[in-house]
Write a structure and sequence with these properties.
alpha+beta, Uridine Diphospho-n-acetylenolpyruvylglucosamine Reductase, domain 3, Uridine Diphospho-n-acetylenolpyruvylglucosamine Reductase, domain 1, five-stranded antiparallel sheet, 16 strands, globular, binds flavin-adenine dinucleotide
Length: 258
């Protein structure tokens, strides 16, 4: 990370990539994945967990639910690593990751490590203050409850997601953030855009805020569809949709010696 900064090479962190769209021309920088065992470890002390940034969120939430540790059930059906969910403040109508975060272990771009309290993290709706800082791990506070009840809640949320979202198809989740109090999916649906396609990318019939990619789909198909959706929603409802997904594009880096 420090070397990349010194050399002026852009660096991005990839979790599970569940919220990332990479341009057809790729990304000409360094991509870091925290999948060393150090970052995939979870330790428990009472109701507190220390979870590495590379830990898979759904299995973690399922294990906690089965042991009667409540607080992560709302993460059922959200494909993510702990690092990605901290950075995105992942969640939905039943709760957000920030509800359980007590402290985040961060590496700054200059290589210095520090602990951030929730205040400093600046959590909001699919928002945080991490910017170019790397999330290394998070301390999570859960509470004990009846394992049967907690597991039932986890399964219930998972079923609700399965019923309303195209979980078995290729997508990056919700493409747009919900604009002040409105549902982006409802606006796209009311605009009659369900099923509309560009190349092999389509607005999902099941959830209009999802774009599903069939085999052979290009990032450019998805990007064209995003532009079309934005134009129609703006024209019909005077509402500007903001993307929730992170779009990675080449930055025109001149490699040394190239
Ligand atoms: C089917 C489906 C359903 C979804 N449902 C939901 C939902 O209900 N609610 C919701 O909030 N999201 C949802 N998403 C989106 C996605 O699951 C979340 O945004 C999730 O938090 C992404 O985690 P990730 O590990 O895959 O991060 P990535 O997609 O890999 O990265 C997301 C962003 O976080 C950054 N990042 C990743 N790891 C780190 C790190 N260690 N340190 C610093 N920055 C980091 C990346 O650089 C990028 O900017 C859904 C996605 C899919 C495909």
């Amino acid at each position: 990370m420090v070397r990349a900064r010194e050399e002026g090479v852009p660096l991005k962190v990839l979790g599970r990539g569940a919220n990332v769209l990479v341009s057809d021309d790729g990304f000409d920088g360094v991509v870091v994945r925290l999948d060393h065992p150090t970052f995939r470890k979870t330790t428990r002390r009472g109701t507190r967990l220390q979870a590495g940034a590379g830990v898979d969120l759904i299995p973690l939430a399922r294990r906690c639910s089965a042991r009667g540790l409540s607080g992560l059930e709302c993460m059922a059906g959200i494909p993510a690593t702990v690092g990605g969910s901290v950075r995105m403040n992942a969640g939905g109508r039943f709760g957000e990751f920030s509800d359980v975060v007590r402290r985040v272990d961060v590496m700054r771009p200059d290589g210095q490590c520090e602990f951030w309290t929730p205040d400093r993290c600046g959590f909001g709706y699919r928002h945080s203050n991490f910017g170019d800082n790397l999330v290394l791990s998070a301390e999570i506070e859960l509470h004990e409850d009846d394992p049967v009840k907690v597991r039932r809640k986890f399964d219930e949320y998972f079923e609700m997601k399965r019923a309303s979202q195209p979980l078995s198809e290729q997508s990056a989740g919700c493409i747009f953030k919900n604009p002040n109090g409105h549902s982006a999916g409802a606006l796209i649906d009311q605009a009659g855009l369900k099923g509309m396609g560009c190349g092999e990318a389509r607005v999902s019939e099941r959830h209009a805020n999802f774009i599903v990619a069939r085999r052979g789909a290009k990032a450019s198909d998805v990007l064209r569809l995003i532009d079309l959706i934005r134009e129609r929603v703006l024209a019909l409802f005077s509402t500007q949709l903001e993307t929730e997904i992170d779009i990675w594009r080449p930055c025109g880096l001149q490699w040394r010696g190239a």
